[in-house]
Amino acid sequence: MAETARPMRIRAQAVGDKTTVRVLMNHEMESGQRKDTAGQLIAAWFIQEVEAQLNGKVVLTAEWGGAVAKHPFLQFSVRGAKAGDTITITWRDNMGDSRTDQATVS
């Protein structure tokens, strides 16, 4: 599962009181419904939980399933963040893998 080793690309830009956070996650996201060239089902492998924190405080939680696209993109807004604050994104998948990355609000 080498894809999980690649970091997320996170951008967080504050404009006034609103910060827009954009996250590109590196994950293959298999639904469990596709077949390989031999006709065998490819095992389900997808992100189940996503959590976003602003300076250690949870600001977003999401539960995903197999219908989310490969290398998912997530965008959300948060109020009260300012330049220099830290946004932390963590995901966990159905195989027990997880990844956490951070970005600084600009």
Descriptive notes:
This protein is an all-beta fold and 106 residues long. It contains no helices and 7 strands. It has strands spanning 9-15, 18-24, 47-54, 57-63, 73-79, 86-93, 98-104. The strands form 2 sheets. It has a 4-stranded antiparallel β-sheet with strand order 4-3-6-7, with no helix packed on it. A 3-stranded antiparallel β-sheet has the order 1-2-5, with no helix packed on it. The protein is elongated and about 55 Å long. The protein starts with 8 loop residues before the first strand and ends with a strand.
Termini separation: 32 Å
Average pLDDT, rounded to a whole number, is 93
Helix and strand sequence: EEEEEEE
Adjacency order of strands in the biggest sheet: 4-3-6-7
* Outline: elongated
Per DSSP E runs of 2 or more residues, the count of β-strands stands at 7
Unreliable spans are none
Derived from helix and strand composition plus strand pairing, the structural class reads mainly beta
Q: What is the count of DSSP helices, taking H or I runs of 4+ residues? A: 0
Proportion of residues in helical segments: under 10%
Beta-strand residue percentage: over 45%
| Largest sheet: number of strands, sense, barrel closure | 4 strands, antiparallel
Gyration radius, to the nearest Å? 15 Å
Oligomer: single chain
Keywords:
mainly beta; elongated; four-stranded antiparallel beta sheet; 48% strand
Topology (elements, then pairings):
Layout lengths: L8 E7 L2 E7 L22 E8 L2 E7 L9 E7 L6 E8 L4 E7 L2
Antiparallel strand pairs: 1-2, 2-5, 3-4, 3-6, 6-7
